[in-house]
Structures are given as C-alpha cells and as structure tokens.
C-alpha cells in the first residue's frame, strides 16, 4: 500500500482485539475484468497483469449469517480502457433484496447503479459522500479521476454476490469520457 493511502485495517480498529482478525484482502488484475469493457481491442493491448483494484474486507461473521455486517475498503486505480473509466466488476447481491452503504474516502469517481428494470443512473463519489444502495440494485464503481480512488462499504453478511447476471448482460449504460467529462451512455 502506498504512503499516503488510507491504511486499513490498522487505522480503523480502535479495539485492538480486532486487529488482524477475519480480514480478507483480494486484488483484481485486468485479466479478472475481461469482457466488462466496451473496447475489447483496447483491453487486449493493455498488460493483463496490471492491478485494477484491491479490496480489504473485515468479515467478522460467517458468510450468510443473518443480522451480521461486513465492512470493506476498495482501492480502485485510475485508468481507462479506450474511453471507458476503470471500474469494478459490479454485482447484484445473491440475496437480492439486501442493501449496502458506500462512502467516498479519497479521489473521485462515480457509483453506477441499475435496478431490476435495467434503469441505470450514477452518483458522484468524493471524500465524505454517502451513498445508499437499496436492495435489488446492481452496483459498480468507476474511477473518473487521475489518482487513486478509494471508498468504504458496509453490507449485510447474508447479502452475498451475484456476478453472473452482470457478466452475462452487463449494465445497460456505460460511463465514458466524452470531451474530458464522464457521460453515461
Ligand atoms: O465485488 P466487486 O464488484 O468486484 O466490487 C469490489 C468490492 O466493492 C465493495 O467493497 C463491496 O462491498 C465488496 O463486496 C466488493 O467485493
Ligand atoms: Fe455489494
């Protein structure tokens, strides 16, 4: 992790008993994001081992536990594939009615949301912004800036992830740079 990056989990655990407990760190390279970007040729020209984002999660309950909560910080690196901003895979929750909070920590981006009728909208994410993702709404983050974009999330431990729906049908709009500005297209 870089020097001025918001450190997780050490900084957040005031209860020292929690330090190092049940923390899951994952990283996704470009190769893990194959098929999600519009410009497949631009994607293939990029180094497939390039780091796209990292997630540190604190998972104090067994996955599926009703009533529990999970907490995570995602570090999404800047970049574009063609004119499309670097973004997370995106998902619905496996328990589709489960909600989630996201909030911005550093850098800037857009939260892209899609409901069950495939209506898509987006919210500007910046340090301190708070975003409520209702149940049934698919969510994905895009880094629209030129620096690291990080955000925190809190979601129920019985939410789960449904990636298949997005892998098959995608979102019905994409966040593209047009004349230097993000546009949902
Ligand atoms: O799971 P992705 O769509 O790749 O998004 C990356 C991560 O973003 C947030 O931190 C969510 O709360 C995590 O559950 C998710 O894993
Ligand atoms: Fe989620």
TrEMBL record:
InterPro entries in the cross-refs:
G6P_isomerase_prok, RmlC-like_jellyroll, RmlC_Cupin_sf
Asked whether the UniProt record includes Iron-sulfur among its keywords, one would answer no
- A GO molecular-function descriptor: glucose-6-phosphate isomerase activity
Which UniProt keywords are present, listed alphabetically?
Gluconeogenesis, Glycolysis
Q: Which GO terms describe its cellular component?
A: cytoplasm
- EC number(s) in its UniProt entry? 5.3.1.9
- GO process annotations (BP): gluconeogenesis; glycolytic process
Associated pathway: Carbohydrate degradation; glycolysis; D-glyceraldehyde 3-phosphate and glycerone phosphate from D-glucose: step 2/4
Its top-level enzyme class, in one word, is isomerase
**A Pfam family reported for this protein in Swiss-Prot or TrEMBL:** GPI
Q: Which reaction does it catalyse?
A: alpha-D-glucose 6-phosphate = beta-D-fructose 6-phosphate
Residue ranges annotated for the Glucose-6-phosphate isomerase prokaryote domain, each copy included: 28-177
UniProt family annotation:
Belongs to the archaeal-type GPI family.
Q: Report what the protein is called.
A: glucose-6-phosphate isomerase
Please name the source species: Bacteroides salyersiae CL02T12C01
């Amino acid at each position: 992790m870089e020097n001025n990056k918001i450190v997780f989990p050490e900084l957040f655990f005031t209860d020292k008993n929690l330090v190092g407990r049940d923390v899951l760190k994952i990283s996704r390279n470009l190769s893990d994001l194959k098929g999600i970007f519009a410009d497949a040729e631009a994607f293939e020209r990029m180094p497939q081992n390039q780091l796209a984002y990292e997630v540190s999660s604190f998972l104090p309950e067994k996955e599926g536990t009703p009533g529990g909560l999970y907490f995570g910080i995602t570090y999404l690196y800047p970049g574009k594939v063609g004119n499309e901003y670097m973004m997370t895979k995106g998902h619905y929750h496996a328990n589709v009615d489960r909600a989630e909070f996201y909030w911005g920590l550093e850098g800037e981006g857009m939260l892209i949301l899609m409901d069950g009728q495939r209506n898509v909208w987006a919210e500007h994410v910046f340090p301190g912004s708070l975003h409520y993702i209702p149940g049934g709404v698919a969510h994905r983050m895009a880094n629209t800036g030129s620096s690291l974009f990080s955000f925190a999330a809190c979601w129920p431990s019985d939410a789960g992830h449904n990636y298949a729906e997005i892998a098959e049908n995608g979102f019905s709009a994409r966040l593209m740079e047009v004349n230097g500005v993000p546009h949902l297209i």
